[in-house]
Design brief:
This protein is mainly alpha-helical. Helix content is 77%, strand content 0%. It has 20 helices and no strands. Helix 9 packs across helix 10 (241-261).
Length: 521
């Protein structure tokens, strides 16, 4: 009888955080309903918020991203690196490469597949005015070097520092300080226990949840846009709401089912499978692509990136212009920051038993190096083909949108007829892995007394998965704009702005915890 009471008490402890769940769901559900009733109004609101947030806070995005990078670097290579999450006797649950696969694919979603070819070409061709203020002539050999340098900046050490910093603070507070697994708990070093209770808990966790929901919808939207453009370019299936909703249902069902299966049965399997496809694609392109050009241009791109690091890092758009800085770098920072607080929870959940230095190697250094390799190989190949006249990818992008260059690129590869459907499947799996991780984390945020090795309620995962999929559909179907992904960028900016100041506080909390308070080794 006593045992039954104890079990019943434990079940009752896993109740909904009403102050987090209901405000978040009302906003997300309201956006979905608005998309049904008046999708133009939804797009107009998102567009105005995009311009306001990045124009007003671009300077802060840039400064705080540099601070995050410096802070992560100092902690990684200092004495703090030997601290083990869970204490000196804690044993890791996942093998090193499985852990890396989960961290890598859970964080990048469809990003590197979507932009590995497209983004360097956009800069190279000055497709939307990105090169106007750079002093580099579009289409020149220097433009190719600039293009690679810029994607190295946007996709490597700075954004992964954002993820890693949030994960570090949350993991240390949860495993070593025995606090709750939540964003609000990461601010205890600044404000004490009161920040995890009452109105403060609701505000902090609700904003973080809304940010990731919008960021996830944006990532799903990019994936939908890319796959639908591929179906039109390669197979002649016209893009439109019907195609997009069918793709959206397939992708949403994939990540929702994987989330329901749990981390060990769903996320781990998807991540390992996804990572293997990434490795195969990299090896294939390095062999069949212009290998010497790849090696030379990647090296030159790294030189240009490092030479311009500080001017790019502290430019709120006054130097490089809105087309380059606001619509690309600041947009990137907005979506990475939108993901960061809840991505930090996911990274913390799978890092038990690891040292801080191991954590940073897996979540900061290795993904960043992977990004350099990926963009170096894919981007250089696309640039060489475009510059040599072997393939006119830019014309396809002008006609079909910013993400459409990938498909003729793949079609030009040996065995392209096989590679294209494999990449389409990879895109679905890539997004599903990230969405799987985040819908699980969102559900954790909405539930009291959750532990890192427990799964939230199935109905909650289903609810969030379907809601996020619905918002993505409306933004893709009705807010394409000049680049074909304008509505997606609007969502990203909204998500990032919602947690920008929470992210600033997490950085301050990290500084206080490691450099002012007493740390237990």
């Amino acid at each position: 009888m006593l045992q039954q009471k104890v079990v019943h008490s434990e079940v009752d402890n896993k109740t909904i955080k009403k102050g987090v769940f209901w405000p978040s769901f009302i906003v997300v559900g309201g956006a979905t309903i608005l998309g049904v009733v008046n999708n133009k109004l939804l797009v107009d609101i998102a567009s105005k918020f995009f311009d306001w947030s990045l124009s007003s806070f671009g300077w802060l995005y840039q400064i705080i991203s540099i601070v995050a990078l410096l802070l992560v670097g100092i902690i990684t290579f200092s004495k703090f690196g030997k601290i083990r999450f869970g204490g000196s006797d804690a044993k890791p649950k996942y093998a090193f490469m499985t852990w890396f696969a989960m961290a890598l694919t859970g964080g990048i979603a469809t990003g590197i597949v979507v932009w590995g070819v497209n983004e360097p070409l956009i800069y190279f061709a000055n497709l939307y005015g990105e090169m106007e203020k750079t002093g580099v002539a579009a289409g020149s050999p220097m433009a190719a070097v600039f293009a690679l340098g810029r994607v190295f900046y946007n996709w490597t050490f700075i954004p992964y520092a954002m993820y890693s910093l949030c994960g570090l603070v949350i993991a240390y507070m949860y495993f070593n300080k025995k606090k709750e697994l939540s964003v609000s708990a990461s601010l205890i070093p600044l404000f004490g226990e009161k920040v995890t209770k009452g109105i403060w808990l609701s505000i902090i966790d609700t904003l973080s949840l809304l940010a990731i929901a919008l960021g996830l919808a944006a990532s799903l939207g990019v994936g939908l846009t890319l796959v639908s453009s591929g179906l039109e370019i390669i197979y002649g299936i016209q893009q439109g709401p019907v195609v997009i909703i069918i793709l959206g249902l397939v992708i949403t069902a994939t990540y929702t089912i994987a989330s329901v299966l749990g981390i060990d049965k769903g996320i781990k399997w998807l991540a390992n499978f996804n990572a293997k496809i990434f490795y195969i694609l990299l090896g294939l392109l390095l062999v069949v692509g212009p290998t010497l050009y790849i090696l030379r241009t990647t090296t030159s791109g790294m030189a240009y990136w490092l030479q311009n690091f500080w001017i790019w890092g502290l430019d709120p758009a006054d130097i490089g212009g809105d087309a380059l800085v606001k619509w690309w770098t600041l947009y990137d920072w907005a979506i990475w920051i939108a993901y960061a607080p809840l991505m930090g929870i996911f990274l913390a959940m799978i890092s038990y038993g690891r040292t801080i230095r191991e954590f940073m190697i897996i979540n900061w250094i290795m993904p960043s190096v992977f990004g350099v390799i990926w963009f170096g190989i894919w981007g250089s190949t696309a640039l060489q083909w475009q510059a040599s006249g072997a393939l006119d990818l830019v014309s396809t992008m002008k006609t079909n949108g910013a993400v459409a260059g990938l498909w003729p690129f793949l079609a030009n590869l040996p065995l392209g007829i096989i590679i294209i459907p494999v990449v389409m499947i990879t895109l679905i799996i890539s997004f599903s892995t990230a969405a799987d991780a985040m819908t699980t984390t969102i559900s954790v945020m909405c539930t009291r007394n959750m532990k890192h090795d427990e799964e939230p309620k199935t109905w909650m995962k289903l609810l969030w998965g379907l809601s996020i999929g619905a918002i993505a559909f409306f933004m893709v179907a009705y807010a394409g704009g000049q680049q074909g992904v304008d509505g997606i960028k609007f969502l990203s900016a909204a998500g990032g702005a919602m947690v920008l100041f929470i992210f600033v506080l997490q950085i301050a909390s990290c500084i206080k915890m490691f450099f002012i308070d007493k740390i237990e080794y």
